[in-house]
Amino acid sequence: MADSVTKEPTIRIYSVNPELNHDVCMSMLAAAGIYLVLDVNSPLPDHHLNRYEPWQSYNARYLENIFKIVEQFSYYNNTLGFFAGNEVINDDISASNSPVYVKAVIRDMKEYIAHNSPRIIPVGYSAADDLKYRLSLSSYLECMDDTMAETVDFYGVNSYQWCGQQSFHTSGYDVLVNDYSAFSKPVFFSEFGCNEVTPRIFEEILALYSNDMVDIFSGGLVYEFTQEPNNYGLVKVLENGNIELLSDFMALQDQYLRLPPLDYFHIAQSMRKNSKELQQAITLHKQMVPVCEDEYHNLDVSRGVPVSIASELIENGVKVRQGKYVPLSTEQRTSQFDVFQGGSMLLKNPEFRITVDYMSGTEIQRAKGFQNSMYYQFLQPLY
């Protein structure tokens, strides 16, 4: 992913083990100028919400596990944001049972960060782009009743509707942009890259970073890096650990290289317009996000957001090793494996160059308005 203003590279990781040491990996990413958006859930027991019976899995053990990830990764300043859930609501049963619990997890994570983390890190949600829930779910996770902790800081859309050779209109991207035009928080593609037509040619890249979309969408995350049985990979990890660049990788690279310079005047105009609309909303409603409604189409929110059970964990914090940047040796910066393209060696034991003075970020001062990057300015809650 590259965001629509700074083109900072960003990756998404779907699960991590907070009992392991991630310092070297995060230092490598930081040195290369790469940001991380991290999912806090995993398939393990007590590490995710049961979408059908969330009241069973929303418990202290679950919250402690996700808070450990938040605690550990808050100390790396290239952690751009956390996903509180991924496609938890994706059918009628989950839409009846899970929305209020997803909102509770978002609230608990934001309150934990506010009380324990060295800086404010945005918390969002990654949604399946199901037309049945597109507008209602985003609106529900955007709204608030009592506290700003109840509202997402950003919203991710897993979109696979642009397949092969299409256009802004035939793909339905025009409808997507219109549907999120009034959304008050940053929104981006948390997954994209339809593979119903192969090889993928990624022509949606030109649309995503065009004036048609940059007003509303802040870039996107291509799914996915390594080849798996579902055939979405950009690269293939060979049995000996070497990497083969697939045709999708080359096509994606070509599309990024073809991007014209961003229209910064258009972006500035859009930001001024958005700022004006937010100020009008604050004047009219005394807050910048909508008040929650009693009902949302195809969702059951009637039971209300569960009372937090995280107060003790928030008050005392969780015990986990806090992340920190470490110096990288030449050996650590040099791969043991080679990179191939089309059967020919492209790079032998590649070594990456340090492009960012990442060690300057080891001492994180808690300060109002701390910013990761220009992109973080758009994600940071305005309160």
From TrEMBL:
Source organism of the structure: Scheffersomyces spartinae
Protein topology in the membrane: Lipid-anchor; GPI-anchor
GO molecular function: 1,3-beta-glucanosyltransferase activity
Protein name as it appears in the record: 1,3-beta-glucanosyltransferase
Free-text function comment from the UniProt entry: Splits internally a 1,3-beta-glucan molecule and transfers the newly generated reducing end (the donor) to the non-reducing end of another 1,3-beta-glucan molecule (the acceptor) forming a 1,3-beta linkage, resulting in the elongation of 1,3-beta-glucan chains in the cell wall.
Location (main, coarse): membrane
Gene3D superfamilies on file: Glycosidases
Xref: InterPro entries: GH, Glucanosyltransferase
PANTHER family linked to this entry: 1,3-BETA-GLUCANOSYLTRANSFERASE GAS1, 1,3-BETA-GLUCANOSYLTRANSFERASE GAS4
Gene of this entry: GAS4
BP terms from Gene Ontology: fungal-type cell wall (1->3)-beta-D-glucan biosynthetic process; fungal-type cell wall organization
A Pfam family it matches: Glyco_hydro_72
Subcellular location: Cell membrane; Membrane
E.C. code: 2.4.1.-
